[in-house]
Write the structure tokens for this entry.
Amino acid sequence: MEKTAVFKGKFLPYLLLVPQLVITLVFFYWPASQAVWQSFLREDAFGLNSEFIGLENYQALLAQPEYYKSMVTTLVFSSLVAALSLSIALLFATQADKNLKAAPTFKVMMIWPYAVAPAVAGVLWLFIFHPSLGTMARPLRLMGFNWNPMLNGNHAMALVVMAAVWKQIAYNFLFFLAGLQAIPRSVLEAGAIDGAGPYRRFWTITFPLLSPTTFFLLVVNVVYVFFDTFGIIDAVTGGGPAGATTTMVYKVYADGRLGGDLGGSAAQSVILMVIVIALTAIQFRYVERKVQY
Amino acid sequence: MANVSLRNVRKTYPGGFEAIKGIDFEIGDGQFCVLVGPSGCGKSTLLRMVAGLETVTSGEVDIGGRVVNEIEPADRDIAMVFQNYALYPHMSVYNNMAYGLRNRGMPKPEIDTRVREAAQTLELAGMLDRKPRQLSGGQRQRVAMGRAIVRQPKVFLFDEPLSNLDAKLRVAMRVEIRKLQRRLKTTSIYVTHDQLEAMTLADILVVMNGGQVEQIGSPLDIYRKPATTFVASFIGAPPMNLIRLSGDEIRAQFAGDSRSAAETGILGVRPEDLAISSEATADGGITLNLTVEAIERVGAETFVYGTRARAEKAVSATPGELPEGEVIVRIPGQDAPAIGASIRATAPRDKLHLFSADGRNRIDI
Ligand SMILES: Nc1ncnc2c1ncn2[C@@H]1O[C@H](COP(=O)(O)OP(=O)(O)O)[C@@H](O)[C@H]1O
Ligand SMILES: [Mg+2]
């Protein structure tokens, strides 16, 4: 009796927390702290010796013009992908919501891209838009458009944005559709009687009522663009041409894996981590305050 | 200011269900019309057709002399109060009321005047900055009313606006709505399944059943002369006692004249028209010999549930259906016979109702 009482009161709660804590420690804090530690070391190319060099890796990084370029690239890439995937998904969701009979079919069709691995999605889009092999390349060229993502940085960016957006739309669509369906019909009917046309109804009623969903998706999408689009970039452009599609996360990989600069790469991941945490915190603090009801 | 006319209005939902099977009636300018009927009889459907939220399959909806079948809800000059209030959750009380005026491009000062006036009337003046979720059920209901009255429309439409309130508040708001409508003199259509609400609010009462009109008239006319057994048992609480005459010994007492309807029809008598008495029944009245089964004391009145010694078939008429042979007697005060006692309940001839055997027609006696 006494034993169980003690166990119940003290150990059981902690015991039940253990799996969760272990998972967090092993899969997040441990690699994260490794990265932080690594970023203070210089390792030789063969990984045999390492020496502690303090902030030198960071100094070297911040002296590199390419690093700032990758920041700008990331900014352009992530704004484009987040804005496009959210707005296109919202457009689809409003259409599906209007036609509830077709919505289930639409949903199933929409979810397919999400089940495709990022690298595979990249390859698919590359096939379609490859300058010499792609099915779309010829029509584009016939229209007098000199399409070549292998040489033109803007074309390359457009291609990875398309692939990344295509993959993310499904996810956003499902959440938007659920959000739309949660808005009581009668509220929109009241709006119609109150003299608001469909367009005005959308912006003054639907969109504000959808803002919790939009906010959630914004956070998810930003994290997605920062990390998960790596596979797409790797498969489609490999960061090129001339670094035009080298985002921050891709540069971590390129410098560490391909360039062998583990310390510099670790410093970049630490900075990236800090940026994402800061962005998420800002979103929660400021955007959520504007989220209606 | 407007009349509302429905001319042979029908509604078939996609899927083939015919919810409204041809309805005709006219509501005069400034009148308060109540649509009453059991749940699922098509009241909301009919109201939503007037609002323009449902298409009209056939027939004509006419507001103020203009057929509005093809006209958008916004352009029909109506305002509607929904059962769940349908307030805009992200807008303040003020903006909820101002929204419809802004959409119509009314100048700001006038919007402000109207909203504040409505808030004054509805005792919402101190709550204009609150969001709907910060209000009680009764206050939300008043905001929904406010949103309708600031527009000063030709017609108010109400879809069970009080059914989400507790009983006390419901009575209070019922009185408020009636006073407000009398003052504004705006033509109104009010949907409810509550016969008491219907009786107390209506200038014209429309009793509906299964997508059709059972009876139209003033509430008291309908109470005094229900056209069918359905209306007889729906209007009035507790419902009218209905007794099938064929093969019943009561026929002998009642059918002084030997008309055939009286042989096979249905006899109705309201619980409040029966009295417990040992005196002889006046000529042409009826006497029911009952065994008391149950007593309900409500305070001012008492309901006595009795069964007749010789069980005749009671009429199955939903709603207000009684078990076979059961009769309700309403007596004033709290003095009631003991359970198990035998009593005589009597009613004079002028309080009796006679219907055809199928319950569809009233027969004057
Ligand atoms: N959108 C719809 N599609 C198909 N049937 C409907 C629809 N709306 C209501 N109905 C049916 O029409 C009938 C009348 O509904 P309604 O007008 O809401 O009744 P009430 O308001 O009197 O309770 C019901 O049987 C209901 O099931
Ligand atoms: Mg209804």
Chain A has one domain: 65-289. The mean pLDDT of chain A is 81. The domain at 65-289 of chain A is CATH 1.10.3720.10 (MetI-like fold).
